[in-house]
Amino acid sequence: MAWMNIVIPLLISLGVSALYVHLWRRRIRRELETDAIIGKLRTEVDQMVRELNGTTERNIALLEDRIRQTNELVEKAAKAAGVLKRESEKQDFSNQVYTSLGKSRPLNLTVDDENEEPERAVVEEPVDFESLSVREKALVLHRRGQNADSIASELNMSRGEVELMITLHDRRR
Question: Are residues 90 and 127 in the same domain?
């Protein structure tokens, strides 16, 4: 029985050692599995980050393109606004000129009543034709029966200016 006293504690020690080995193996496997899972997660997170970076770069490129297009449109609008401003200033200046033409001194022209047609009326000029203002020249030529196109070409003016002068003069009468 003496050998039983040695074998039983030895078997118990071997059983306890086997149990410890088994528990340690399970714990190591769990840690290895956790490392594997963490590795997989890192791989997936890295892939997501790369995809997000690609999407972000694409979106930034789209935004930069939109900003460039917007800047081009703003430049075109600024140019158009400048042109409109200059045209508005020209229009205001033209209106001032036409207004001053309408308020200028009255033209003292006499029409010969012998001729019944007002377009063919004879005008007596109080002074030399060349000494008259452009407005007065246009009115004299109109009284002589010339049309607006011929007056405009003779006085180097536009037809609209001639018609405006004639209309303003006729309205003041």
Answer: no
116 and 153 inside one domain: yes
| Residues of the domain holding 122 | 105-172
- Of all helices (H) and strands (E), which one includes residue 111? strand 110-111
Do 136 and 147 belong to one domain?
A: yes
Task: Calculate ∠ Cα 157-160-166, nearest 5°.
Answer: 90
> Do the domain assignments include residue 2?
no
* Structure tokens that stand for 25 in this block: 């193996």
Neighbouring-strand partners of residue 111: 123
Q: What's residue 127's pLDDT?
A: 56
CB-based contacts of 138, cutoff 8 Å, min separation 6: 151, 155, 157, 162, 165, 166
How many domains are contained in the chain?
Answer: 2
Residue 153's DSSP bridge partners are none
Going by C-alpha positions, the residue among 132, 143, 145, 138 that lies closest to residue 110 is: 143
Instruction: Summarize the confidence of residues 139-167 as an average pLDDT.
Output: 90
Residue 11 lies in a domain: no
**Single pTM value for the model:** 0.36
Note the pLDDT tens digit of each residue in 66-122. 999 999 999 999 999 999 998 888 888 777 776 666 555 555 555 444 444 444 444
